[in-house]
Amino acid sequence: MGESKHTLSNDVISDFPGKRARTLRFSLGAPRSAQVIGDGSRALFLRSDGPEDLATSLWISVFDEHGEHAEHLLADPRELLGGERREEIPAEERARRERAREGAEGIVSFSVDDAGDTVVFPLDGRLWAGRIGADADKVRIGEIPVSGGARIEARDLQPVLNPRISPDGTLVAYTTGRKMVVVPVNAGAQAKVVLDVDATVRPDTTVGLAEFVAGEEMDRYEGFWWSPDSDALLVERADESRETMWYISDPANPDHPAVGRRYPRALTDNAEVDLVALRLSRDSGPDGSIEIGVAASADVHWDQQEYEYLAALRWQQGNDPLALVQNRLQNKDRIVTIPLASALDSAGGEHDIEATVLLEHGSDTWIDLFAGCPCRTPRGELISAVSDERSDTNRLEIDGKAFTPAGWQLRELLDVDESGVLVVASQDPRSFDVVAFGFDGSVRRLNERPGVWTASRASSGMVLSGRDMDNARSVMTHSWVRGNEVFRATIGNHAAEAGFAPRVQFLQLGGDRLQAAVIRPSQGSRYEHAEKLPVLLKPYGGPGFQQVVYSQAMYLEAQWWADQGFIVLTADGHGTTGRGPSWDRAIFKNMAEVTLNDQIAALHALPEAVPEADLEHVAMIGWSYGGFLSALAVLRAPEAVHAACAGAPPTDWTLYDTHYTERYLGLDPQVYEDNSLLDDAAGLKRPLMLIHGFADDNVSVANTLRLSQALLAAGRDHTVLPLNGITHMTNDETVAENLLLAQRDFLYQALGMEG
User: Fold this and answer.
1) Alpha-carbon gap, residue 338 to 356, rounded angstroms
2) What is the CA radius of gyration of the chain?
3) Where would I find the beta strands (DSSP E) of 526-612?
4) Burial class for 495, CB neighbours closer than 10 Å (0-12, 13-18, 19+)
5) Residue 662 lies in a domain
6) How far apart are CA 159 and CA 153, in angstroms?
7) What is the pLDDT of residue 12?
8) How many domains does the chain have?
């Protein structure tokens, strides 16, 4: 990939911070979250109306019998709510959106039955549904009134959280957090509470909700699962009473009480998670409605004392459910099957079910999770993911034998059918490719250009979506095969454009050939022909995430920084994904030293490729782990990095959550001290700005306050920028805009640059 160039006007670059903030990083108006349904000729997706419209609507992409394509609006949240007000988002739903990094409003998730005929979604804490017939442009969306009859008031059945339609399209299950509710889709039917938690006896127990670390670290947002036959549910029950109680306050409004919540802090207790299996009964009422009952229930057991994490669960047609469970250190896991069919059919009432171990894995460090795994092939073979040390490849195995080829680094399993598996995988770590690996040994890459891609597939249809280096806008393409004909259409994208293409050069730096991206000032910039320019290191640099990828959108902000007078360098060091298990695991118990050394190595190697880079004037900025690295750099490498802005930095890893932190640092308190910033405070010699949101429930503001306290105690000058009401997502337009400007001005002064 060569360097891209573009001439920018001063107005375009000066407007960037505000435009970026108003458009949620240029994401509003872009189609997303596609799901192909039915025979593949239809696909549901989400999209707001314009580049600054937060209200996301539900749409459908359709090919008719002649192959003609159309897009139809199914549900607009403003119309459903009467256009009088914005939706009221329940606290539990706000927490789920924070875990999923969801910044939009309106319809942000949906559930559809197996046939693709009925769709349901939550809005305003209420339940909505629509039938999708042959005329997609005539679909009517309506609220399903949730009524529990005389003994249960409607308010006791709210809010409606995470509704999921049964595979046969007749029932909807959802949770209120305390109650698991099932309601028939047909109008007028009464809801049934199928599982309840007595808040007076178990005040910190939820049902049907994924616990904090599941959503934040495992990418598991589901807390209950339908059986393929629509006659049973598996429900998570999480007792969080042993977790630490943390409080989030609003210092700018001292009359507002602090909000308490449980947080799984590293080296302390996790939530106790188990499963409850429910067999449902159905009776027809005199008016033709369906009355729901619970015919049998059972507590599901595995070795929870040794394997306390429920990482994944999959329930496929013709099979008992599969679950992936992990031990506390995540260096052992088990795939277990839960024999529900025989257990729930054999007896009524309440009894226990013991899970059966199918497969075990072990590691000297940790075992990664891969979305979509485990599952079964249509023939019943077990598909699982493994980090193969011999080939240094993350790959799929079938019934314990390696299946996907060595050198293809697995990222996610998307689908499996009779022909093979559909995955996201990489040969070049900068490209996330959608690849079909056939059971016949065939390999087909489905994206034409390198980029960051994903897909949804059903029957003979597919939606391919992602980004590449040709354009910052995302691309979503719907294709459908009928006989020998292939129909293809691009789904409309209404997102704003930055008005420029970043000037990116991809490099491999240093002895470890670190993947790096260099962004220079644009053509026409006052800095374009400068003989020397200060360097801005802009990493994430932490485990599990990459920034150096073939996606133009990743470098828009970097181009803005370059046109403020910097050579911008982003480098992916050890621990970032895409280069195999040994690369990932080089950071084990030594995150701080290894990840910082990689950034310094990339910096020192830079002048050979970029001679105008001035290593006498170097700054670093970053958020989250990137914020940790930025503060770490000026504390432990002040000779190389001369100023830093650290956003939401986890300065003390004992304040971060269990599943992430213990995976990399283990359980030895000394390892935590070695990777903490607090004991380095006395060594600060360079300008440091600490930035943190008081409402951050992921990286607590306590991290920044403790480092600031240590710096003050050591007599070290520093700057703290508190962001009241701001979460880890920096979810305020004004703050997001001005935060860039505040950091720029701080670095100008720190490095002695002209403003």
Assistant:
1) 6
2) 26
3) 533-537, 567-572
4) buried
5) yes
6) 13
7) 81
8) 1
Q: Does some domain include residue 530?
A: yes
Residue 343 falls inside a structural domain: no
Exposed / middle / buried, residue 133 (Cβ in 10 Å: 0-12, 13-18, 19+): exposed
> Which residues are paired to 226 by β-bridges?
233
User: Phi, psi (5° rounding) for residue 477?
Assistant: -120, 130
Ranges of H-type helices in 121-195: none
Domain containing 681 — which CATH number?
3.40.50.1820
Instruction: Write the secondary structure of 133-152 as one string of H (helix), E (strand) and C (coil).
Output: CCCHHHCCEEECCCCCCCCC
Q: Which helix (H) or strand (E) holds 671?
A: helix 669-674
**Residue (of 74, 75, 78) closest to 53 by Cα position:** 78
Q: What is the DSSP letter of 425?
A: E
Mean pLDDT to the nearest integer, 281-286: 80
Report the pLDDT value the prediction gives residue 3, as an integer from 0 to 100: 54
Residue entry with tokens 């959608």: 434
Q: What angle do CA 498, 504, 505 make, to 5 degrees?
A: 175
Query: What pTM does this model have?
Result: 0.94
Q: Is residue 628 part of a domain?
A: yes
Other beta carbons within 10 angstroms of residue 690's beta carbon come to 26
| Averaged pLDDT for residues 141-147 | 85
Quote the pLDDT of residue 133: 79
Domain that holds residue 724: 504-751
Residue range 367-377, pLDDT digits in tens? 999 999 999 99
Q: How confident is the model at residue 291 (pLDDT cuts 50, 70, 90)?
A: confident
**In this model, does residue 125 exceed pLDDT 80?**
yes
